[in-house]
Backbone:
């Protein structure tokens, strides 16, 4: 049986489980130690909720978590990720349903091509839904 090593400790249940699921999504099995000790003070009393992986997966898991954390940090640096940075944006912008950013714009895909223009002129009711694009996460909604 492989030896388990602790790669992270958490003070809250939610962060521990989200991180564990991230490892699982990339095929790295892990376990949480002390995750059922309560939700507020008990995990802190026993040193936190410990995320453990097999010793042979330690380097890969740490590298993956570093990549994911760096990506999250970079995303937080994009304009209007935080609510207090949104004052320069149009107040009518929709909030992205994927990431919560207000750095969005309306997209009129029906008029981008000649064919789209012709179809829009014939049957505008088919295109009455607004399409939005998020500059933060790059998704359309």
Residues:
């Amino acid at each position: 049986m492989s030896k388990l090593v602790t790669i992270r400790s958490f003070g809250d249940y939610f962060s521990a489980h989200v991180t564990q699921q991230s490892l699982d999504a990339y095929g790295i099995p892990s376990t949480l130690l002390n995750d059922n000790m309560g939700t507020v003070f008990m995990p802190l009393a026993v040193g936190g909720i410990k995320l453990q992986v097999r010793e042979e997966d330690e380097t890969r898991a740490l590298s993956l978590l570093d990549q994911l954390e760096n990506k999250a940090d970079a995303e937080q640096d994009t304009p209007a990720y935080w609510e207090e940075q949104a004052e320069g944006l149009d107040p009518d912008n929709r909030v992205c349903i994927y990431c919560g950013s207000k750095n969005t714009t309306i997209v009129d895909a029906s008029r981008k091509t000649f064919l789209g223009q012709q179809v829009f002129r014939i049957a505008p009711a088919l295109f009455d839904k607004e399409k939005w694009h998020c500059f933060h996460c790059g998704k359309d909604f």
